[in-house]
């Protein structure tokens, strides 16, 4: 208190109660500023760590595919890879310096004029199936700290106000308790003084030395009521802050899970232009895609291996109202049987041996989006019951958790099996089949749309010619006839 009195000399002319109030405000402001500075520093460290994670993910997931695209001179795929990497947090510029003999060819995407940047260089090496290594050049990745600074400045006012409210409430509660203890102590001293010297005026209960007042009988009651009121308001504020924190934590977990999924798989945007062909059977399948795209109906895509079932599924998703979110893909045949349940629904720490951290399942990641269950016919029978629960009620539980999670997910499944035969054999649940088979779409094989072969030949020939640096304009009639007559 002597420090503040020296800093603000005018305070010594006011009563002690008013000086205490000013002390509380000043202390609250100082603690709020200190807490805000610490919190913003921690936020800055976290954002920089996220930026470094983007660099590590580029090195882990994109470097090999970019080197392969550079080796094969596949400029379209290289462009898609660079555009996908630019979606990572705070990455603003990517440049591939490709070595071709003594010349350097550059492929760049993004803003090369960004300020406050961090630059990383990664060597591009292509490893052939036989194990040979080829030096293809260098990948230059640049990240900007401008987004980090903007996010920090946008949080300054909110964090400062929140910290000031917290510290002010805490300081006020402490002041009220101190005031109550001092008042009770002075009343005891006054009672002792009057017993020792009856008739002496009682001036010990006042905290204002300039204008002493006589004690009021209900002063303690007023102090107690004030303390109770402050406690109730503080409790209400704590509950509101706790609810807000819980909501923020849930949104944060969902965002982290979606970001992690995007980092596991490069997202390629497909539309109808990527489906090549104008045969009546293919156009009929695309017509059914347009019919069902704007609904939330489950779709079962049927067809032989290699007919393009995933392309049809992505076309359904991208044409729907959920297309702004990524399509979450799960291959039911590629995952081991003991991991499929954890991959689909997630697990808590300790759910099984090696489960050290919580993992969010693909259904939770796909909330408000679509999930593509490829090779659904290979799903184990014991997991079909849990999938049926999600389709019926839109809810599930993680492994080793009793908390029910509600999701809004559209299911698109695909298979090359005869599902009706599997149902008859008891290898697939009949009720689950009816839930998935609401709107079936059959993708025709190439042998049933011979008229699409010239368009496909032209498309692949153009890509091969670009990659090899050749110029091929026509295909001999005999070669085209052989392709059409191939069994």
Task: Outline the structure in words.
With about 475 residues, this protein is α/β, with parallel strands linked by helices. It has three domains: about 1-265, no CATH class; about 270-445, 3-Layer(aba) Sandwich (Rossmann fold); about 450-485, no CATH class. About 55% of the residues lie in helices and about 15% in strands. The strands form four sheets. The chain has a five-stranded parallel sheet. Strands 2-1-4-3 form a four-stranded antiparallel sheet. The model is unreliable at about 10-15, about 195-215 and about 265-270 (pLDDT under 50).
Strand content: 15-25%
Task: Spell the H/E element sequence.
Answer: HHHEEEEHHHEHEHEEHEHEEEHHEHH
> Helical percent range?
40-55%
Distance between the amino and carboxyl termini? 96 Å
Largest sheet: 5 strands, parallel
Indicate the overall shape: extended
In terms of structural class, how would the helical and strand content be classed? alpha/beta
User: Mean of the pLDDT scores?
Assistant: 79
Q: What is the C-alpha radius of gyration, as a whole number of Å? A: 35 Å
The number of strands is: 13
Count of DSSP H/I helices: 14
What is the compact description of this entry?
With 487 residues, the chain is of the alpha/beta class.
What attributes does this structure have?
487 residues; alpha/beta; Rossmann fold; 3 domains; 13 strands
Topology:
Elements: H1 2-7, H2 16-71, H3 75-85, E1 91-100, E2 103-110, E3 117-127, E4 133-144, H4 146-196, H5 219-264, H6 280-293, E5 299-302, H7 309-318, E6 328-331, H8 337-345, E7 346-347, E8 359-360, H9 362-365, E9 370-374, H10 381-393, E10 395-397, E11 404-406, E12 410-415, H11 419-425, H12 430-436, E13 439-442, H13 453-468, H14 477-484
Parallel strand pairs: 5-12, 5-13, 6-9, 9-12
Antiparallel strand pairs: 1-2, 1-4, 3-4, 7-8, 10-11
């Amino acid at each position: 208190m002597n420090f503040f009195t020296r800093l603000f000399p005018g305070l010594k002319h006011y009563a002690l109660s008013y000086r205490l109030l000013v002390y509380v405000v000043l202390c609250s402001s100082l603690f709020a500023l200190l807490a805000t500075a610490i919190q913003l520093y921690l936020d800055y460290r976290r954002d920089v760590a996220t930026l470094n994670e983007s660099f590590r993910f580029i090195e882990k997931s994109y470097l090999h595919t970019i080197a392969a695209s550079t080796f094969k001179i596949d400029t379209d795929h290289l462009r898609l890879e660079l555009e996908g990497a630019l979606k990572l947090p705070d990455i603003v510029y990517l440049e591939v310096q490709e070595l071709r003999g003594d010349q350097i060819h550059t492929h760049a995407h993004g803003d090369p004029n960004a300020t406050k940047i961090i630059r990383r260089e990664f060597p591009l090496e292509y490893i052939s199936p036989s194990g040979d290594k080829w030096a293809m050049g260098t990948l230059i990745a640049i990240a900007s700290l401008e987004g980090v600074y903007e996010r920090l400045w946008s949080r300054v006012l909110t964090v400062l106000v929140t910290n000031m409210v917290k510290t002010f409430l805490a300081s006020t509660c402490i002041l009220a308790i101190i005031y109550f203890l001092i008042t009770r102590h002075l009343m005891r001293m006054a009672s002792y003084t009057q017993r020792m010297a009856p008739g002496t005026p009682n001036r010990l209960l006042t905290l204002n030395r300039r204008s002493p007042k006589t004690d009021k009988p209900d002063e303690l009651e007023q102090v107690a009521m004030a303390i109770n009121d402050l406690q109730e308001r503080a409790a209400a504020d704590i509950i509101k802050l706790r609810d807000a924190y819980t909501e923020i934590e849930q949104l944060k977990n969902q965002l982290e899970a979606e970001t992690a999924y995007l980092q596991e798989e490069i997202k390629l945007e497909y539309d109808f232009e990527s489906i090549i062909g104008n045969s009546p059977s293919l156009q009929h399948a695309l017509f059914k895609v347009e019919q069902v795209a704007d609904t939330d109906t489950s779709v079962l895509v049927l067809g032989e291996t290699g007919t393009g079932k995933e392309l049809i599924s992505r076309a359904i998703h991208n044409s729907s109202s959920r297309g702004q979110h990524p399509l979450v893909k799960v291959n039911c045949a590629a995952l081991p049987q003991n991991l499929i349940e954890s991959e689909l629904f997630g697990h808590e720490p300790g759910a099984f041996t090696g489960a050290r951290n919580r993992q969010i399942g693909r259904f939770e990641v796909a909330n408000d989006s679509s999930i593509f269950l490829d090779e659904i016919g290979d799903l184990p029978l014991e997991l079909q019951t849990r999938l049926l629960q999600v389709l019926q009620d839109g809810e599930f539980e993680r492994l080793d958790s009793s908390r029910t999670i509600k999701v809004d997910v559209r299911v698109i499944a695909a298979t090359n099996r005869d599902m009706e035969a599997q149902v008859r054999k008891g290898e697939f649940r009949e009720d689950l089949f009816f839930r998935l088979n609401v709107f079936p779409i059959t993708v025709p094989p190439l042998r049933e749309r011979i008229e699409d072969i010239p368009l496909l030949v032209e498309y692949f020939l153009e890509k091969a010619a670009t990659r090899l640096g050749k110029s091929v304009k026509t295909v001999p009639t005999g070669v085209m006839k052989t392709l059409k007559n191939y069994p």
